[in-house]
Amino acid sequence: xxxxxxxxxxxxxxxxxxxxxxxxxxxxxxxxxxxxxxxxxxxxxxxxxxxxxxxxxxxxxxxxxxxxxxxxxxxxxxxxxxxxxxxxxxxxxxxxxxxxxxxxxxxxxxxxxxxxxxxxxxxxxxxxxxxxxxxxxxxxxxxxxxxxxxxxxxxxxxxxxxxxxxxxxxxxxxxxxxxxxxxxxxxxxxxxxxxxxxxxxxxxxxxxxxxxxxxxxxxxxxxxxxxxxxxxxxxxxxxxxxxxxxxxxxxxxxxxxxxxxxxxxxxxxxxxxxxxx
Length: 277
Fold this sequence. Notes:
Distance between the termini: 45 Å
Oligomer: single chain
Number of strands: 12
Strand order of the largest sheet: 3-2-1-4-7-8-9
Shape: globular
Structural class: alpha/beta
Radius of gyration: 18 Å
């Protein structure tokens, strides 16, 4: 049995504001250990439940945040950028039996600690086939296309509510309770590690490949905080203006859909100007 852990940082234990997750800051350096604790606890729980392999895919910012030297010796970690499926890289090879979203968060334009979708600001909303979409929802659709169930989600309490919509059977662990975008009631790393490990052990029973979900189109719409960012996004083939500060595109598969999304966000981030956005 092989489990993939997609590890993001905004939903990690103790994380509540931008400096906690921005590489190079003293706060980021401090929070890396708590992030690593969450991920390692999930891995240990999956091993407790009978998993043979755990692959951790770093999914935050530079994708070089976790402390490998503090992980269980059985874990393997995929670190670094420029990956075909970004946050769920590794799911496409046919050998993953379940995926866990550890350290996840709510989507752009919604309540939640450090809520966003791919870009820290700039994007004010994302919709998938008319439903407001978090990174969790987008990645869950990619996983479903490969027949891989989402079995565990960790983050703040609102992230767990969001996950009920795209992975109702998955185990959820709230490591903190939302107060505002930059404030939360946090639990200690010792407590959250125990909670995550127990949930991961239970979640292992949900692992097992499913029939791939195929046959439908996926329309993604994005809203930005400035009109020039929407214009920049239309450079990507198939992406067209759909309203004020909005663009949309339709893909035959979520594999194509998430790769187009990645292209759009890369171009848009390059079009952001200092101060004025």
